[in-house]
Specification:
It comes from Sinocyclocheilus anshuiensis. It is a multi-pass membrane protein. Residues 173-421 form the GP-PDE domain. The chain is α/β, with parallel strands linked by helices and 461 residues long. It folds into two domains: 8-34 and 41-107, no CATH class; 174-418, Alpha-Beta Barrel (TIM Barrel). Helix content is 50%, strand content 10%. An eight-stranded parallel barrel has the order 1-2-4-5-6-7-8-9. The relative contact order is 0.09.
Length: 461
């Protein structure tokens, strides 16, 4: 007795006790006495309620005046009973895995035998009913098997842009730094664009605003609040439009301190002490500074324009004297811009027809990645109109763009995408078909094994 008490105190296993309690209604680890009459698991109450509901539904026609679909209730009841048996099977497997003997409570045995007997006997009781609806049942069974068969076959006909024959994959899309390399340095700063060039970016994307005294500078937002320290320098003008500041006033602002404080991409910890000091000293750059950097490293430039007055377009066009490397994106006064500088490469952000694009001398489209398909990319490429998609920073999305034949992408993660040597999901049609065939075979095999194992344990216990 003392040894048994010590074992109950020091060798008690809550998991095994719970399994034994659910399976055999023995909630104490070392209980060996039989369950007293009336002791049974509370889970049986729900099953008895379902039985009562199913029985009462048969006589509902006389009281309700319409035929109640009691067959549905019977199907639900059958599903509940088989779920109950399946749960007992899972409990038995868990107990066996723990090295325990199986003591199935008598109430579970009664319900199990009654469920199996009830399910098998009803086949003969309802033969007339089944004969009457045999056509319907056969149709439903055929539909079920057809759907199941289709689920096995549908992957073989699925379309994926990364299924390519050997040697048909095109070159990797050109990487264009979105406002530079905003993960490595503050966006729209000289340091950010230098980081983009160093990471292998072949193009630079930015936004241009015109200062109050007519100097084009790099700024995406309407105000200076997010990316400068205007709160400290001009606390009374934090909500003023960026275009209302003169260039000398803009040069007084820090364009990098916010990056260290907010850490927008969680990458500040990767900067060393010298880089942190350099970030702190970044200022708002002019368009001329960016064009000089792009010309020095032979990079393309894409910029969006914040609707400047017509009289200021000349200042933008000749801000750096490198218009042959500029992709002109703004749609306003496009014909006038073409007359002023024919060397500019015209770029459009509109999903227009080929005829409209050719009339405006568009050589490249700049669209969101969700608006383009592989067929459209091929259609535009057939008339020498390349495609740039934005903003793609995830390797899997870049892989899909690569397989779809995209010519360039605007990204925040130049340093990550440049490391990809091939698309992530690239495979030949034969490899794709083999993958799904093996998956179908394996799943069917596992279903058969599970069914056979379940039937064996039910018959045994």
């Amino acid at each position: 007795v003392v040894r048994r008490q010590l074992l109950q105190r020091y060798e008690h296993q809550p998991f095994v006790s719970c399994l034994a309690g659910l399976y055999g209604c023995q909630w104490r680890r070392y209980q060996r006495a039989k369950a007293q009459p009336g002791e049974c698991c509370y889970s049986l109450i729900g099953l008895l309620v379902l039985e009562a509901c199913a029985f009462s539904c048969r006589f509902s026609f006389g009281k309700l005046g319409f035929w109640f679909p009691w067959s549905v209730v019977l199907l639900v009841l059958a599903a509940a009973l088989f779920t109950y048996i399946a749960l007992l099977l899972v409990l038995a497997v868990c107990l066996l895995s723990e090295g325990q003997r199986l003591y199935l409570h008598w109430s579970h045995k009664v319900i199990k035998e009654a469920s199996l007997h009830r399910s098998s006997s009803r086949i003969f009781v309802f033969i007339p009913y089944l004969v009457c609806v045999s056509v319907r049942q056969v149709a439903l069974l055929s539909l079920f098997l057809a759907v199941l068969f289709a689920l096995y076959l549908v992957p073989l006909g699925m379309y994926s842009p990364c299924i390519k024959e050997e040697g048909t994959l095109g070159p990797a899309p050109t990487l264009i730094g979105h406002r530079g390399a905003p993960m490595l340095a503050p966006e729209n700063t000289q340091m950010s664009f230098e980081k983009a060039v160093g990471a292998g970016g072949e193009g630079l994307e930015t936004d241009v605003t015109i200062s109050y005294d007519g100097v084009p500078f790099l700024m995406h937002d309407r105000t200076l609040r997010r990316t400068t320290n205007i709160q400290q320098v001009f606390p009374n003008r934090t909500d003023a439009p960026a275009a209302m500041f003169t260039w000398p006033e803009l040069e007084m602002l820090s364009a990098g301190s916010w990056f260290l404080q907010r850490d927008p991409f969680g990458t500040v910890s990767s900067l060393d002490a010298d880089e942190r000091v350099r970030v702190q000293n970044q200022t708002v750059p002019s368009l001329k500074d960016l064009l000089n950097l792009a010309a020095q490293h032979e990079r393309l430039v894409i910029f969006d324009l914040r609707r400047p007055p017509l009289s200021l377009i000349n200042r933008i066009l000749y801000a750096g004297g490198h218009s042959q490397r500029v992709l002109w994106l703004p749609a306003d006064q496009r014909s006038l811009v073409q007359e002023l500088d024919p060397e500019l490469q015209q770029m459009s952000g509109d999903h227009a027809s080929i005829e409209e694009l050719q009339e405006e001398h568009i050589v490249r489209l700049n669209l969101h990645y969700s608006y383009m398909s592989q067929e459209q990319i091929r259609k535009y490429a057939s008339v020498n109109i390349s495609t740039n998609l934005y903003v793609i920073s995830q390797p899997w999305l870049y892989s899909l763009a690569w397989c779809a034949g995209v010519h360039s992408v605007t990204t925040n993660a130049l340093h990550k995408l440049k490391m990809l040597q091939r698309p992530l999901f690239l495979m030949t049609p034969d490899e794709y078909s083999l993958m799904w065939i093996l998956t179908d075979i394996l799943s069917a095999f596992l279903i058969l094994i599970q069914w056979r194992f379940s039937a064996t344990l039910i018959n045994k216990y």
